[in-house]
Amino acid sequence: MLLVGGTPQAGGILADAWEWDGEAGTWTERVLSGQPANYGHKLVYLPTTGRMVMVGGQPNGAISGTLWELDGDAWIART
After folding, report:
1. Contacts of residue 32, Cβ cutoff 8 Å, sequence gap at least 6
2. Which residues are within 8 A (CB) of 22 and not within 5 positions of it... i.e. 6 or more apart?
3. Measured CA distances, 70 to 21, 36, 39, 48, 51 (Å)
4. What's the CA gap between 8 and 27, in Å, rounded?
5. How does DSSP classify residue 24?
6. What is the dihedral of CA 73, 29, 21, 69, to 10 degrees?
7. Cβ-Cβ contacts under 8 Å for 41 (sequence gap 6 or more)
8. Planar angle of CA 18, 27, 17, nearest 5 degrees
């Protein structure tokens, strides 16, 4: 499982990423390049490509239609 971005209670928009290790029961922060600070987006795993895709969200408070694909440790804008 991968969690990306969001909004903390103190305000602002996060650009972090955390990966869940179900066997160890721990979260590990992942450093991903190209990742925008974003919230309200959707993450989907595409089994045909083996990659995560991030769609939409509000990186600056305005709704975005950008599609991002996770390629290893880098987010790549596809639109």
Report:
1. 4, 17, 70, 73, 74, 75
2. 1
3. 18, 12, 17, 14, 6
4. 17
5. T
6. -30
7. 4, 5, 54, 55, 56, 57, 58
8. 5
Q: What is the CA radius of gyration of the chain?
A: 13
> Sheet harboring 2-6: ordered strands across?
2-6, 14-21, 26-30
Residues 15-67 pLDDT 10s: 899 999 999 999 999 999 997 888 889 999 999 999 999 998 887 777 888 89
How sure is the predictor about 76, in pLDDT bands with cuts at 50, 70 and 90? very high
Residue 52 bridge partners (DSSP): 45
Distances (CA, A) of 42 to 12, 67, 76: 19, 10, 15
